[in-house]
Amino acid sequence: MLQPAQLFLDEMGELAAIIPAKDPVVRAYYAPIPSFGEKSHQPIIPVCEPLLSGNELAYVQEAVKSNWISSAGSFIQSFEEQFAAACAVRYGVACANGTVALHLALATLGLQPGDEVIIPTFTMIATANAVTYCGATPVLVDNEPAYWQMDPEQVAAKITPRTKAIVPVHIYGHPVDMDPLLALGQKHGIYIIEDAAEAHGAEYKGRRTGGLGDAACFSFYGNKILTTGEGGMITTDNEEIARLAWNLRDHAFSNERHFWHRFIGFNYRMTNLQAAVGLGQVEQLESFVKMRRANAAYYSQLLRDVPGLTTPPEAAWAKNVFWMYGITVDEQAYGINRDALRVALAERGIETRTFFIPMHCQPVYWQQFKGQRFPVAERLCRDGFYLPSATSLTKKQIERVVDAIREICPNL
Predict the structure, then answer these.
(1) Nearest-CA neighbor of 138 among 165, 109, 108?
(2) Cα separation of 351 and 47, whole Å?
(3) Which residue is catalytic, options 224, 319, 370, 396?
(4) Quick one: how far is CA 152 from the chain centroid?
(5) CA-CA distance, 275 to 161, in Å (whole number)?
(6) Structural domains of the chain, ranges and CATH numbers in brackets
(7) Each residue's pLDDT expressed in tens, for the chain with a length of 412 residues
(8) DSSP 176
(9) What is the Cα–Cα distance from 23 to 274, expressed in whole angstroms?
(10) Which helix (H) or strand (E) holds 33?
């Protein structure tokens, strides 16, 4: 029987204080016009929305006219090839969504019950779930405070003879410091599988995410930089991983005989319609990244003197693509806490989202990680949220968001 939320929060003790309040209702906003004593309607600014500004519709129409709309068709291979090329690797394996891409990549490693996979506690729950699907055990580490990414020193301390893989997650579009993790993988014979769901086009020391580890996994959900509505991709230079992933995603059909299966496979295929959208999207990757980075720079410029706000970091060795423009709020310096600020923004027609709730605070994993503490992840969960971050965001919309933040701030 599912435990009531309040009982679970009571059991969490002091950790309950970091769990965000419910999302506030975003209301249409009517701003006063001082000169006329009237009010003007201000449309709601969503936290994110897709930008379908290229060949997406033309390619979908072509797929429909060809009658190839399911899991076969030319757009699937074209999308795989072009996305792999954008990550500077040889192989792309298109999947139904980002979560199954993670599961599929881990499944190619032959994980067994008792095997361990090290992940950050501060991540979307799909990362931990994909490990659990394989029967393996997620092992948690904290994030480092400077860039909010997986802490390589903690990873090194958590490696055991049972460790089979490390999954660095490029949180909010900023890459993890990969060199120390790659060195650990080489030293201990451990696979490195990037969770790059949020990092399309990001770079680490001049190299694209998606081509840094043994394999990488991307999501093309509707709020991602590139989208197919739902969809995912494994990228890799490892031919064995790619070929096994292609086979397992399609029920592990044998090349020798039809309906002949040597492995337990999955139905994780992408449709030709989704791939048609994806091809139209990947053609625009460079311009989308440029737009995201320009929006982030404008936000940071306008927010630089607001007390108590920390804007998204970017390491000298990184190219952050700002999947979401995330900030943290120091309650004492700003004057109110993160949740109160979100409510005030929602009342002004501005939608926001809180940062991830760490895995050790999730009800489904509570007993597994009970007693473990990760202070950086906990602080990010308590204080962090992201502002509207769509690629198509205009300067006027950014100015409206920032004006609201400044207006709400009691200490400005």
Answers:
(1) 165
(2) 5
(3) 224
(4) 19
(5) 40
(6) 5-49+286-408 (3.90.1150.10), 56-284 (3.40.640.10)
(7) 556 678 788 899 999 999 999 999 998 877 776 655 556 778 999 999 999 999 999 999 999 999 999 989 999 999 999 999 999 999 999 999 999 999 999 999 999 999 999 999 999 999 999 999 999 999 999 999 999 999 999 999 999 999 999 999 999 999 999 999 999 999 999 999 999 999 999 999 999 999 999 999 999 999 999 999 999 999 999 999 999 999 999 998 988 788 888 889 999 999 999 999 999 999 999 999 999 999 999 999 999 999 999 999 999 999 999 999 999 999 999 999 999 999 999 999 999 999 999 999 999 999 999 999 999 999 999 999 999 999 999 999 999 999 999 999 999 9
(8) P
(9) 30
(10) strand 29-33
Is 65 annotated as catalytic? no
Distance CA 209, CA 194 (A): 8
The token pair at 97 is 């969504």
Report the predicted TM-score, pTM, of the whole model to 2 decimal places. 0.95
9: left (phi over 0), alpha (psi -120 to 50) or beta: alpha
E strand map for 220-361: 232-236, 309-310, 318-319, 325-329, 353-354
Which has the closest alpha carbon to 165: 204, 131, 196? Answer: 131
